[in-house]
Amino acid sequence: MKKVDQLNHWMYDILKEAGVSNQIAAWLNVLMLIIAFSIICYTIHKVAHKLLKVTVGRIAENTSTPFDDHLVRYKALFYISQLPGLVIVMRAIPWVFIDFPDYAAFASSLADVYLIILCIWIAKAFLNAGKDYLKTKEAFKDKPVESFVQVIMIALYFTGALLIFSSLTGKSVIAFLTAMGAASAILLLIFKDTLLGFVASIQVSANDMVRIGDWITLDKYGADGDVIEINLTTVKVQNFDKTITTIPTYYLISDSFRNWRGMEKGGGRRIKRSIFIKLSSIRYMTDEELQNIGRIQLLKPYLDKASVEIEQYNESAGIDKSLLINGRNLTNAGLFRKYTEEYLSHHPKIHKELTMMVRQLAPNEKGMPIEIYAFTNDVRWVNYEHIMADIFDHLLAAVKYFDLQIFEFPTSGDFTQNRRQVEALEM
């Protein structure tokens, strides 16, 4: 013990012999010891870090898991290698500050605080490494792992804050929690968004409402794209124009949104669009016109069957066919609707196992809507748009073969043409 004390006061004795006062000699002695231990701890840290990197490197060579790579990236080895030196410092503080016991207590508290912070850093590095590792697994790619890591980190930070408070003040953690009870309402107000996000993250995950990679649409917030991140407080959506929309997580359970996952998994994307037929162009078809339309291959089987049924009905009922309105008759709009059904049923890009129909909606100021309701068998956006455009290009061009007209609002050219016709009649 005497040898230890002599080593402790080695610089002090040298300074005293040089004529330095007791107080200055004591402070300079402490300063030199701090510098000496700083050098020792730094050396130990470097050696430990090097040994850990070599050890982990050898382990990584024998394993295929990327977990160790993530540990290095998040500096887990760097933080762990500081522990041996910190332990030495904590053991040496009473010896270094033997002449200043008040400062020794303060230095010990600071060392305890740094140890708590260092442990939190190590835990955070392992959590982040585990998060990135799980994201490489197929089962966790669409799960909000980020949210759960953030919840654990909040718990770690809160626990660390309690331990730091206890270390600096000397009071127990229970006393601090008792004092915090009175301020719970204020804390709930401060951490309202975090708590709401935490609850929302659990509900979103438990109910499988949204996954990473889902295409969602929230018109209220201008979001229309793929979910790229789900964390404790926000959901990041990469829109199709490559912009990023950030939405609070709890909005996913408080507001309505559209998730297109079912469409993508079902293998069909819906077409729901109408062609507006001008009402004045709808009429009965004459026998001569039916013979001409019978040349349309897709319509010929239906037309042959329907013509026989209608003729038999009219003859059995004694219908006077001198007027087309009498009895049963075919209309150009009905034939066009039937042609559209046949065209869709023969189209290679229409999903045959999902709903497919062509229906007539209630007439309005734009005419009579003929709505196409079907699903493409290609859900990719660009391909879907091309398929739908090809279908409607064909149908719009086919309308004239049924002597129908598409409704459109008059333009300046229409008014000019009408004016010229009136002028020609007046002349």
From TrEMBL:
Residues 193-261 form the Mechanosensitive ion channel MscS domain. InterPro entries: LSM_dom_sf (IPR010920), MscS_beta-dom_sf (IPR023408), MscS_channel_2nd (IPR006685), YbdG (IPR030192). One of its GO terms (molecular function) is mechanosensitive monoatomic ion channel activity. It comes from the Bacteria. It is a multi-pass membrane protein. It is found in: Cell inner membrane. Keywords: Cell inner membrane, Cell membrane, Membrane, Stress response, Transmembrane, Transmembrane helix. One of its GO terms (biological process) is cellular response to osmotic stress. This is Mechanosensing system component YbdG. It comes from Chitinophaga caeni.
